[in-house]
Design brief:
Elements lengths: L1 H11 L8 E5 L3 H13 L3 E5 L2 H9 L6 E5 L7 H11 L7 E6 L3 H9 L4 E5 L3 H33 L9 H18 L2 E9 L3 H7 L1 H18 L5 E6 L2 E9 L5 H17 L2 E3 L2 E3 L3 E8 L6 H17 L4 E4 L2 H22 L3 E10 L5 E12 L3 E3 L5 H7 L2 H21 L6 E5 L2 H4 L4 H12 L6 E6 H5 L2 H13 L3 E7 L6 H6 L4 E4 L12 H16 L3 E5 L4 H9 L4 E3 L9 H10 L4
Parallel strand pairs: 1-2, 1-3, 3-4, 4-5, 11-12, 14-16, 16-17, 17-18, 18-19, 19-20, 20-21
Antiparallel strand pairs: 6-8, 6-11, 7-8, 9-10, 13-14, 13-21, 14-15
Helix pairs in contact: 3-4, 8-9, 9-10, 11-12, 14-16
The chain binds ligand C2E and magnesium ion (2 copies).
One magnesium ion binds next to strand 18.
């Protein structure tokens, strides 16, 4: 019986609790021996004390225990006193204390529990009860320890980046706060450099995310190498890093020093990184901002460094730029434009113009491209090149694109209802809009609402849009194609879509980018070779090929000789209002 009981208890008290360290405090040597024996028998390590003062001394000496079994009645210092001292004097609240008392001492048990003991056991005790109570208390402590360790881990995670091991944005934020205090005290400068890798996405896209991760880790190492002792190097998000230099002296050479440093970073990024035999050579764009020169708060430092970095990117890759009034102006212009665009959308100030697409077979209008314009109440017609990029950055492009989609579809249906032979209407889709999860159902709804057959709607998507996430894009394209909608690749030749991918895109049309249709297409051999190869490529994939930006007769001749299918350009017509296009359709001829 005893044996079975022992086994059950011993089973229950297996890992991970054994090996833990218990201090048994007991003045009666027999009971002390018994307690120690039972506890040792299931794997605990035991230390003993024969009176309260000895126990307190051990704690004072810094001995570490996982639990204490504490007799209440002892000759010199009582268990209650030990309890109080441990909890109040040493602030040791996590150490579980199991008090042991004779049955007659119930008053003392209450006092013990009130001074901070966790549980009690009455003498003479049963082995099974002793072990069960000890285990309970230890489990509790074990779980609290785990919870605490997890909390610590979460704190670490909150401050460090998993991939590179570098500190993250939260860490940077805290450090900058401290740095500002220091900079004010010593009248010194903090310089914050944000850097973003140019064309990083293409690594993920072409070699996979694993390669992208390796690239970022290697880059983190390089940045740490370039940085000086005391600099903070952090990864902010995907391919954006920050380096902070503190304690710079306020003198005229600060910028010279920082420029040199920025160049060292650019060099480090420029040096190729080899992954799976591929030599990856990238550039970076860096924005630099100083405290207290241009900024007053951590938020400003982060915001302005970001603006400067994007400004550097817009100026062309592989460069660094200091935050300046120019960057600031650019930023506030954008902000202003964002506000105005929202208002314009609300006030219905946008209009669509339509540019005809002419079949070279019979010179008829086979389609139109819908091109947005902003009909500003004071400034008149504003070109999309002035506002599309800001609309894209701010997300306004989504409601705007939706409006274009619906308006163009409705207009096309209207032409059909007026009795004209049906034509396609091409609608440009911004990358953000194309990658919107709800796009497919949105298009479906528009067709339903406007009653336009899907074959008369053609969505124009650029190579860049597709290639930024090719696999997902193909999925979306297939869904759209499945609905019967036409798909074309816009500005073809300017992106990086590989032939491999091109074969997998369910598209019907290639639009040759107008930059290839140069003035002297017939005599410029390089350009004309590109154009004729794109046409051949398109035809070999059974695609309809449209040349954009055709302005002259000689360009037209060259394209005709090379069997280009359709033409869109000023030679035939600019983009015109819906009413003007109605007239063109009515006359059936464009010129
Ligand atoms: P895109 O889609 O490549 O449109 C063709 C652009 O070339 C149009 O400029 C058109 O007016 C212009 N173009 C056509 N033929 C000729 C020509 O013979 N010579 C010259 N020099 N230019 C010609 P637009 O209307 O200023 O639009 C510029 C870009 O803005 C468009 O390029 C497109 O990327 C974007 N865009 C226009 N409308 C929308 C829209 O509704 N949504 C989105 N997301 N983007 C749009
Ligand atoms: Mg287009
Ligand atoms: Mg185009």
């Amino acid at each position: 019986m005893d044996n079975i009981e022992n086994n059950i208890v011993d089973d229950a008290i297996s890992d991970p609790l054994d090996g833990l360290n218990i201090l048994v405090v007991e003045d009666d040597p027999n009971i002390l021996a018994q307690l120690s024996f039972h506890l040792k028998s299931v794997g605990y390590s035991i230390d003993t004390a024969t009176d309260g003062d000895i126990a307190i001394q051990k704690i004072e000496d810094g001995q570490q225990y996982d639990l204490m079994v504490l007799d209440i009645m002892m000759p010199r210092v009582s268990g209650i006193e030990v309890c109080r001292t441990i909890r109040q004097k040493y602030n040791l609240y996590e150490l579980p204390i199991l008090i042991s008392s004779a049955l007659s001492e119930s008053q003392d048990v209450v006092a013990g529990l009130e001074t901070g003991a966790n549980d009690y056991i009455t003498k003479p005790f049963q082995r099974i009860e002793l072990l069960a109570r000890v285990k309970n208390l230890l489990s509790l402590k074990y779980m609290t320890d785990i919870a605490r360790a997890n909390e610590q881990l979460a704190n670490t995670r909150a401050l460090y980046d998993n991939l590179t091991g570098l500190p993250n944005r939260n860490y940077l934020y805290n450090k900058l706060q401290e740095a500002i205090v220091e900079a004010n005290r010593h009248d010194s400068i903090i310089a914050t450099l944000f850097l973003n890798i140019d064309r990083f996405k293409s690594i993920n896209n072409s070699l996979g995310h694993g390669a992208g991760d390796i690239y970022l880790r290697e880059l983190a190492k390089r940045l740490l190498k370039v940085a000086d002792h005391g600099d903070i190097v952090t990864r902010l998000y995907t391919d954006t890093f920050a380096v902070v230099k503190m304690g710079l002296e306020k003198n005229s050479s600060a910028n010279k020093y920082l420029s040199k440093f920025a160049e060292k970073i650019l060099d480090a990024v420029n040096t190729p990184i080899i992954i799976n035999q591929y030599e990856l050579k990238r550039t970076a764009s860096i924005g630099i901002v100083k405290y207290p020169d241009e900024t007053r708060t951590v938020d400003e430092i982060l915001r302005y460094a970001d603006s400067a970095m994007y400004y550097a990117k817009a100026q062309g890759n592989n460069s660094y730029i200091y935050y300046s009034s120019e960057v600031h102006q650019n930023e506030s212009d954008k902000f202003d434009l964002e506000r105005k665009l929202k208002l314009a959308l609300k006030n219905k100030e946008f209009v669509l113009h339509y540019q005809p697409q002419i079949s070279l077979a019979d010179e008829s209008i086979v389609g139109v491209e819908a091109l947005i314009r902003w009909d500003h109440p004071e400034d008149g017609i504003i070109s999309p090149t002035k506002f599309i990029s800001v609309a894209e950055e701010t997300g306004i492009i989504i409601p705007l694109g939706q409006w274009v989609l619906e308006t163009a579809s409705r207009q096309n249906k209207k032409w059909q209802e007026m009795g004209f032979a049906p034509i396609r209407v091409g609608v440009n889709l911004a990358p953000q809009h194309f990658h919107e999860p709800g796009l497919v159902s949105q298009v479906e709804d528009v067709l339903k609402r406007t009653n336009l057959s899907p074959e008369y709607l053609e969505l124009e998507i650029t190579e860049g849009t597709i290639m930024s996430n090719a696999e997902r894009a193909i999925n979306t394209l297939n869904q759209l194609r499945g609905m019967g909608i036409g798909l074309s690749i816009d500005d073809f030749g300017t992106g990086y879509s590989s032939l491999n991918y091109l074969k997998r895109f369910p598209i019907q049309t290639l639009k040759i980018d107008q930059s290839f249709i140069s003035r002297d297409l017939d005599i410029n051999q390089q350009e004309s070779a590109i154009v004729s190869s794109i046409i051949k490529l398109g035809h070999s994939l059974k695609l309809n090929v449209i040349a954009e930006g055709v302005e002259t007769e000689s360009q037209l001749d060259y394209l005709r000789q090379n069997y280009c299918n359709e033409i869109q350009g000023f030679y035939y017509s600019q983009a015109v209002t819906a009413d003007e296009l109605t007239e063109l359709l009515r006359n059936r001829s464009v010129r």
